[in-house]
Amino acid sequence: MLHSTTLNCPCSTKAMSYGSFVSLSPTLHQVCSSGFATDEWVTLLKRSTFGYVPNDWRNRAGSQFQLLSDFCRVANKTIDDSVDRFLKKFFIASTVFNEIDFDTQLNVTIRQFYNSTIFDFSLQNNVVRLFLQVDQPYMGPFNDENNYLHSNLIIADIENERDNQSLSQVSFVLLKISEINSTVFTCICATDPRCQGLSAIYGTDYIREMMVEQWNASWPYKNFYKSCAPIYCTYSEKIRTKTIAEIIITLMSVISGLVVSLRLITPYLVQFFFYLWAKISKRQQSQQQDEQIHGNWCDRFKMTMRNVIKLLHSTVINLNIFSLSDIGSTLDPIKAKRLGQWATRLYIALFIGGLSILTVYNLIQPQMMTKTFNKPPFNVYKNLKKLYGDELKCPCSVIATVYSQFIEIEPTFHKICSSPFASEQWRINITAGLAANLSIYERRDYRRFLSAHLQFLQGLCKLSMNSVYNSINQFRTSLLVTSELLSETNFHQKLESLMEQSKSNAPTTFRHLLFLIRTINHGNAFISTYGTNFEYIVPEDASMGSYLPTRALIYDDKCSCGLCSNCTTQANFITSNSSEIIPIPIKGLKIGCTPSESFRPSTLECFYNQSCINLIHEYTNYSYSHEPLSIMNSSFLINTTMAELIGRLFIERWSIKPNYTSYFQQCLPSYCSYTSVQKLNLISIITLLLSLQGGLTIILKWTCPKIIRIVSKIYDYRKKRMNTIHPGCALEETSDDISNTPADNVTTNLEISSMPETSPTITGRSGRRTSKVFFGCILLTSVIAALIIFSFYIVRQASSINMTNDTNVNPTTNTTMSTFSSTATPICKSEFRSISMNTSYFDLIRNGFVSADFNNDNRLDLVIYSGLHRTVNLLFGNGDGNFGAVNIIPREGFKMLSHINARDFNNDNRSDLVLANSTHLGILLGNGNGNFGALNIQSLGAKCTPNEITVADFNHDKYSDIAVVSMKNNSMCVFLGTGNGTFSSPLIFPTGHNSQPRSLNVGDFNNDGHLDIAVTNENAVNVGVFIGCGNGTFEVQKQSFTFIGSDPTNLAVGDFDSDTHPDIVTSNDNENIICILSGYSNGIFDVRQKFFIKSVSTTPSVAVGDFNCDGHLDIAIGTTGPYGIDVLLGYGDGHFDTQTIFSTEVFETDIMIVVHDFNGDTYQDIIAIDVGFNTIDILLNICECCTREILKKSNSSLQ
């Protein structure tokens, strides 16, 4: 609480599973745990039927309680699975949230989990109910299966006019039930979805809430803190730039500097002024002297300079600023004066040198200044942003804000959903004029279908709108978590990215759910009571109690409902006269196997046409009129099929209005700060000089006399030693000489006796030499000190720059769908140079190429298969990314090639080839010169038709093995190599019923030292991992669900978050989605991130490499619509930057990319195959960040 606003505790574990600190234990309604939901109770009720009275509730009680029991079980299972998935998801936190922010974020997240779980379950329930209501599947008899009197079947005898024989025909009757207040059949379920019988179980509220009484969620803050496990915490507080003590010291330094300066300067200024006054007076007194002085100006200047130099020299030589007490009161006054002069010279030299060094150091030393603006209003912030740009930092006082506070999202739906044609009232009115029993109309009369189609239209509109608004609500109730205010540009970019994801999630989920229900219905061959997909056949010899076979109906183009559920024909109103049946077509509408399936290829053209609407009114006896739909302001054409409208959830357009001002108000920055290098002004420089001068004066005035005293004592000591050792050098003077010396020379003699007795010339030279040495030492010391200070300055500047980069605040956006995070450290962008090869004469196939060194020249060669000429072609590499001569490889009748791969299969250090078609493998052993031996053909077997092949050593025998994935057979096959180009029979491992595996890759996914195999199961929407046992066998597949809409096709393996566990990235043939799954080192993966690649249609191919040489893996993505390549540049922590490295205007539908080094510079290049336009593009890596030394590579490194 002391530093709640500035406390920062970095988490040692930034990705924490919700299960580590969240507890969820939902409680269901008590009926689900009572005896009324048990199998024993249901069995008892089913035995209590009363077959002779169809309206007796006992006939239906068993099925109704069975439904209740099943619903409780499904709800319980769904909740358990949802809770388990939620608790395995990761909560991303770079620092410890305070308790209030943590509770706020968890409240929103848990609430979203509740709502999404309930809505997803409710959506599935409503879709199933809609299909049941529309298609009216035949449920059999009410009670006893042997009693068909009440089984909604009519057996009628039809007389053949030609031979007067009668044929039995079975037709369906739409289900009728008795209303609550009636005892007769009055409600037809097909036309009235709200029919309620006399006795039934109705609990829509409980069903809507999944029978959940309480969710019982808790998230103790202390558990979150333990999971985060911060190693240290920091906080910041505002303090004054200078303390009171520092201010006092500065003032004392300035005052002392001024005092000393004035004491030194004032006497000389006064003398100078008196000197000038004397000069002026002399000029006025003597004209002759003025004329002599005013001679040549150059001579006058030289004379002045000589006088100044002499004056300066004599002043410096004779200057003594020290008193006798400073030198020592015990010394002789004459010696004290001379030592004072030397101390003054030392003082001046050290003062000038020290002042210069310290002044330069302080001037070049950067003074960091931080300007802080407390609680700036929005207009002030905008002005500050313009002035300071990205240097302006504004920490948020509220770090977690729901999106609804600053964004408005409103979808516009197709006009049909808001028109009367999709209303319940119009459906009731339009069908009121029809016969209650629709079975009386001809089987292909649209009046049988009209009510079902209108119900389907109404239900789809309602479900689509609910799905869209739920997706919007999920997004708007999500939290934007950021500790620092985002700039307006980053704010809009974040919202745009998140909205693109949100807009695609709802349609994708809805499409997959509809596809699942349609597939189940068709797979189980449910019979519609409309009699439109199957009919019962009564054999001529049939008797009472016989079982009747069924027969599928046939529609246009001989389409059988037994094989396809989407068989249709033109919808017509059927009229007849005595001679013929007359069909009246209805524009745009279809009928077919079931009402739901026939409505999908239908269009809404009739509802745009007044004549067509009048036609419907005419044949339904409807007397009112309605205006047709308008085509104005619609993004859909009038002939757009219902399937396309459903796929887009009837959405015309989106209206998205982000409000940056509201976001600013929600963030509510407590302050904004800007840090810059402070520039020194004149006053600052003067203050600095005075402070330094005052400080140096005090220090040097105290130290210089003491230094001279010490030097003098050393000098005297050495002189005495020299006198003792060389006594003959001393001059002897008699007492008479001394006595004859005049009194005036006493001072001179005393002065001379205190110094070495040498000649005047020697003394002068020695003094000048000593001065030069002394001042040279001072100069050298000053230069060395300046260099040291400058070095420290450079190091500090570099350190300051690094710290500035590292301390940037990273904004993070958390939603229930995904986590977006930006990294502050700038990443080096990759750069490529493309080389295009026109191979239109080859007719390329997707997996019909491979790169390796086939002639041992340490250059990559390229093998491609020509679908046009049925040849295998070897293109020899030039070592610069280009390819030269073409060598056709004979394959001796190996037809219809679908895959090529390369490896050394016989351990002779030469690259070999493996070819594959739908039935066989072919091995070509290389000779090392570009030629190959005889083709060795081996059967694949019945269950190993390849979709993709890979080569690795799965049993540690140092021989290459082959793995094949088969979409047709839902299996993965392994062929173990023998070392001579032959292989064992296949070991077959199932991937799951109808899983449709598309591709495979190899890695050690559980870190046990054995290679494992990962496959993408497109139809099952998961990634399956076969854990290798090290002997060529594998464990049962472990499946990791991706997400609805991911449609995993191609995959690549790499460690993207530097946790030493292999991760997986999957591509998508149908959408522009890339999915990254994080590995747990046990063969299980969890979806870490989803990337929506903008401005492209699909992302069918991925590959992994380090394209900017930063030591972190990147992901290359082959895109279509248009054809190109994007790269996700990795930071090594699971985060990526997106970059487009290759783009075209070609809207191709397929691309295959592979990573190799094609020019021998050790940088990873990319090859892209465009199957549609038969071109090969080689992208050579020329990234400036790559500075590695070129290494010589062996053959093995080129494969």
TrEMBL record:
Segments crossing the lipid bilayer: 247-278, 346-364, 773-795
Protein name per the record: Uncharacterized protein
Keyword Iron: no
Pfam family, one: FG-GAP_3
SUPFAM superfamilies: Integrin alpha N-terminal domain (SSF69318)
UniProt keyword Membrane, yes or no: yes
Matching PANTHER family: ATP_GTP-BINDING PROTEIN (PTHR46580:SF4), SENSOR KINASE-RELATED (PTHR46580)
Residues annotated as signal peptide: none
Keywords for this protein: Membrane, Signal, Transmembrane, Transmembrane helix
Organism field: Adineta steineri
